Structures are given as C-alpha cells and as structure tokens.
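Lay summary. Proteins are chains of building blocks that fold into shapes, and those shapes determine what they do. In this project we predict the shape from the chain. Here is one chain we studied, written as its sequence of building blocks.
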Amino acid sequence: MSSLDGPIQAAEFDRLMAVFAPFEAKPTIAVAVSGGADSLALALLLKDWLAPRGGTLWAVTVDHGLRPAATAEARWVVEGMARHGIAHACLTWPGQKPATGLQAAARRARYEMLEAFCKDRGILHLCIGHHREDQSETLLMRVRQGSDGDGLAAMSAQRILPACRLLRPLLPLPKARLQASLAARGESWISDPSNDNPAFERVQLRQVAPILADLGLGTENLWDFARSMGRARQALEEAICAFLARHGAIRPAGYATLDRQALLSAPPVLASGVLRRLLAAVGGRSYPVSPTAVARLLARWQEATGSGGTLGGCGITEYGDKVLIYRENRSIPSIEVVAGQRLHWDGRFSIQVSHDVPTTGLYVAGLGTVAAGRLRRELARSAGAPGKEKGNQALTSLVDQIPVKIWPSLPAFWAKEADKGNLGLLSVPALGYIREDCPRGLLTACRYLPESGLLPATFTLV
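And here is the predicted shape, written in a compact code that computers can read:
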C-alpha cells in the first residue's frame, strides 16, 4: 500500500498541524468525536501529536437524541476514549427538535455546544474531522445553492469563532486514509445509518459521485477547484481588512459606519464582501446574507442619491457622509438570566452576570423604542441637575456618541418588579446607564462579540 492511500504517519500529521502554528506551550485541544472513522482517526492522531508536547486532549461527543442507538454509540465512544487515556465529555441536545431542516438545525446545535464546551474550559482549539470528500460535497452543495466565489471556496481549514478557533487538519486527505489509519491500529468504528439516508442532500450527492467522476467532476478535481477558490477568498479577506481599516469603523455598541463614497467606488466584489460581513456581524447572524441581495442593494444605491434599506436583520441608512449599519429593532430575544450566568445574547453580545446579584426575575432584552425615548428624556433632564455635573457630563458624552437609531436594539437589563407588576429598566451597559437603585455589581462584563466570526481577524473594534 502506497503512502498515497496508506495510514497517516506521524511526520505527515505534524506537517498538517504546523499549518495552524503557533500553539501555546502544552496546548489543550478539543476534538469532536462521533465514533465514525473520520473523528476517531483524528482523535488518535491528536493524542500522539500532543504527547511529546505535554498537551491535553478532550474528546467531545454530541448526542442529538435523534436515533435510539445514539446513546449506546456515545457510551461506545466513552469506553474507547477511556481505553486510550483520552478525557471525554458527552453533550446532549435539549429541547424539542424541528420538524423541517433537521440536519441543518442539528449541525448548528452541535457547533454551538462544542464551542460552549471550549469556552467554559478555556480551550482555544477545536478540531473537526472533515476530509477531502466532505469538502467536495460541500462545494457541490454551494454550487446548487447559487453561492458566489466566496462560498465556492467551501470549508476553510481554520475558522475563528468568538470563543476558540475551529481547525480541520484532515481536510486535504481522502477518507480512505483515515480508515487505513484505524485499520493499522486494529481499531473499529461506527457507521451512522443517516449517512445512507437518501432524504439528506449529502447522501444524494454521494450516490451520484461515480457519475460526476466519469464527467470529470471527481473528488480530486473538486478539491483542486475549492483550493483555488480558497486562495481567492484569502485575497478578498485581505482586501476587506484593508478597506475596513481605512474606511470603516465597528463600534463597541454593536453598529458600524462606512465611508459612503469609498463603498460605492469600490469594485463590486469588494463592496459586496465588506457589506456581507458587516451585516452578519451587526445583525448577529452566523452566516453572511445572500450576495444577490447585497448586489441589488448596491445597485439601488448607485442609481439613487440616498443610501437606505433593510437586509439581514439590519437597517442601513445615510449618516452624514457615512453609511450607518445597525441592528433592526425586531426579533430581538428576551432572556431571563440568573446570578453567575454567562450567555451570548442575540448573536452579538457576550454577557456575564455577577454571582453576587440577589435579583430574581432578571431579564436581558432589547431597550426598545418606547423605553429608548423615555431614557433620552430622563438623561436630558438629569444632565443639568445640580451637584451631578461631573458624572452627567461623562454620561452625556457617551450617550451623544451613539446614534439614536442604535438605541432600541441595545442590550438592556430589566427586573420584574412585584410592586409594579411590570418590567423595570435597570441598566443599559452600552450607554453607561445604571438606575440609581440598581445593584452596582449587576454585570461583570457586557461586550460586543459578534457570533459570525466573519470579520477579518486583524480588524479591531474601535
């Protein structure tokens, strides 16, 4: 058996991991393990890679609760990881499952739980066992969905998430080599029956793979195409980063501004890339909006004197010589929180509630239009109150920096007050507002941390 289809050797895996360097001393890595050949091979390769580095490996299994056998399979993984001396955790997907879009919802829940696991333990690296065939299938799915050049790069080897980075070290390798690596170790693996269910798009693509290969669209050719598009995507990311650094600003209150003339003068692919990433980040979305929708928006701006509209849960409007992008005041969640809780709210803000807060019935929700108007009037009245000039000047300065359109969608903290039978506004962290009788230790932190991970990593909030 040649090295092209045989087991993965240690030196080769070293080279695959070197792409993601540097790592911290004695790195801790989490790896998603379902019990399939791909993830199991990756877990064992990572264990061997970490051993001489003094690192720690966590295997994490997600039980979606979608099949009766899933729990038994999770136990099988637990036993296998214990046999190899690998720490293991099993996560379950709670709540009612959707009737439609089940695979997409399960995938989204899986990544959310994996990232939360890493965040809770301070793990910076999350490895996934995607391989070359997975990449080819993703590319075909993107073609079917009408993706632009950005999407046709398919999966990236590295993706920056708010809590950690997601790594796919096996992406260049075919599945057969992962199976060969397990066979060489005398290891068995689990075959998920959903991988043969023709109701799922990936299974449909696997069934026609031999026909596509005969037409010159085999895994190798698709991999080469995705890799070429990946290089183009990297160049676009660098251009977007440079454009934002020169012409844009993303504020800690969760909104963005762009130089309007620079945006309209930019090449369409660059302007579209900038807007799609900002709309995802400001709107709290996991993925960018449709390139077709952004193209239509840009075309309207080119033809008219004004710049405005709504897209991707965001409002877009003129703001002097800028374009202002802000979260629309709709579909904003209201979540009850408790002392010590940490949550990621509305896909935009990372919130840590103090352990010392005695308040019950505490909620985080959008400020809303009515409360925003009342708060503005209250702050205007108190601005001239005697004896508070210094504090009021600081608060007024902060408030005046944030456009009025931003206020309704800002995270606000409310308490259900028994004597009033309603929700009373306690705090609006982005405005520096705290009600006088509010517990001073309400929050440890409330900061803008967009869920999308789509902003260029080198671009910093200002």
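What the prediction tells us: The first strand starts at residue 28 and ends at 32.
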